[in-house]
């Protein structure tokens, strides 16, 4: 009985295969015009209808969100001691941000500006920059990972905002970027104003997504898990543009000679190292490392190496501001 059922299945399968061997013209897939077929979307891509959002500036105010704690006294403390006792710093980041945290094509190891910032924190903690365990996080996972203590720090192009400061703490700012637009050269798109009625890609859980919704509510938005996915859907012409920080867009443009960053700066995006709320000793410790990088030439060297070729020269690292 079982053998007969299997034989019938094999017959049916070979009939299907024979049918696919050029006997009949392939039926065009619905939605795919002519002989073309639609490329698949990245996993977990979601297309949202146009909708507006409140101004990100209308978020709860906290004075200057980048004001952090002074480095002094951060070398010891319960959280810093616990990390030293563990012997490894747990760092949250993502491997899909070219220039910041991405897989080196030759070695396969994580590399980039954010990876090097994390490495310098480990150097100061342990005297050994390799004592790091990475935890791969999407943009939308950053606050939760800190709240759950899955990571000791997040170093992932994370903008310091008042809204986030209610959930997590931040170091001083270690890089200033600005939201802009990435489009295909010759597309006629010159900035956010041209995106009414167009499709724009962004990653969920980001300041970039909130700002597109606020500035250009007439755009339809595709959200994907990583910024690298946004480059893929732009290349597949499933969106017309991508919008996020210029530093991240420069990393995408560096991978595609047909893409260009256009339009005015739409925001200030000061990047900080995320730290679990209440871990003041760790905030001070990280701020001591960042202050060393600003003054001993390391910051300039890292900027020069990773970002200057794509972003142009920098005036220097952002000046730290403190609230204590
Ligand atoms: N700076 C933006 C943010 O923190 C986007 C960066 C990212 O998604 O990694 O939301």
From TrEMBL:
One Pfam family from the record: SBP_bac_3
Entry GO CC: extracellular region; outer membrane-bounded periplasmic space
Residues covered by the Solute-binding protein family 3/N-terminal domain: 88-310
GO biological process terms held by the UniProt record: amino acid transport
Region (Disordered): 21-79
CDD domains in alphabetical order: PBP2_GluB
PROSITE patterns: PROKAR_LIPOPROTEIN
Keywords assigned: Signal, Transport
Span of the signal peptide: 1-18
Family from the record: Belongs to the bacterial solute-binding protein 3 family.
Protein name, per record: Glutamate ABC transporter substrate-binding protein
The organism's taxonomic lineage, starting at the top: Bacteria, Bacillati, Actinomycetota, Actinomycetes, Mycobacteriales
């Amino acid at each position: 009985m079982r053998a007969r059922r299997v034989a019938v299945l094999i017959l049916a399968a070979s009939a299907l295969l024979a049918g696919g061997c050029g006997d009949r013209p392939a039926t065009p897939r619905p939605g795919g015009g002519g002989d073309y077929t639609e490329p698949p979307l990245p996993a977990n891509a979601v297309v949202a209808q146009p909708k507006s959002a409140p101004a990100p500036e209308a978020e709860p105010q906290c004075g200057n969100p980048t004001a952090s704690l002074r480095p002094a006294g951060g070398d010891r403390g319960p959280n810093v001691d616990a990390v030293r006792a563990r012997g490894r710093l747990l760092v949250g980041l993502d491997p899909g941000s070219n220039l910041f945290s991405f897989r080196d094509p030759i070695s396969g190891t994580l590399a980039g500006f954010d990876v090097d910032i994390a490495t310098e924190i480990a150097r100061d903690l342990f005297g050994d920059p390799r004592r790091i365990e990475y935890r791969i996080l999407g943009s939308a996972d950053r606050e939760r990972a800190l709240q759950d203590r899955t990571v000791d720090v997040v170093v992932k192009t994370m903008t310091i905002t008042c809204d986030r400061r209610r959930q997590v703490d931040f170091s001083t700012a270690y890089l200033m970027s600005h939201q802009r637009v990435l489009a295909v050269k010759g597309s006629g798109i010159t900035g956010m104003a041209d995106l009414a009625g167009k499709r724009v890609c962004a990653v969920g859980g980001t300041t970039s997504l909130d700002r597109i919704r606020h500035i250009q509510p007439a755009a339809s938005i595709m959200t994907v898990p990583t910024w690298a996915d946004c480059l893929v859907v732009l290349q597949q012409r499933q969106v017309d543009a991508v919008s996020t920080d210029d530093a991240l867009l420069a990393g995408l443009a560096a991978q595609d000679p047909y893409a260009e960053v256009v339009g005015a700066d739409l925001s200030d995006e000061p990047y900080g190292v995320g730290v679990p709320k209440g871990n003041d000793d760790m905030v001070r410790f990280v701020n001591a490392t960042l202050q060393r990088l600003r003054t001993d030439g390391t910051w300039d060297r890292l900027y020069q190496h990773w970002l200057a070729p794509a972003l142009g020269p920098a005036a220097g690292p952002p000046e730290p501001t403190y609230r204590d």
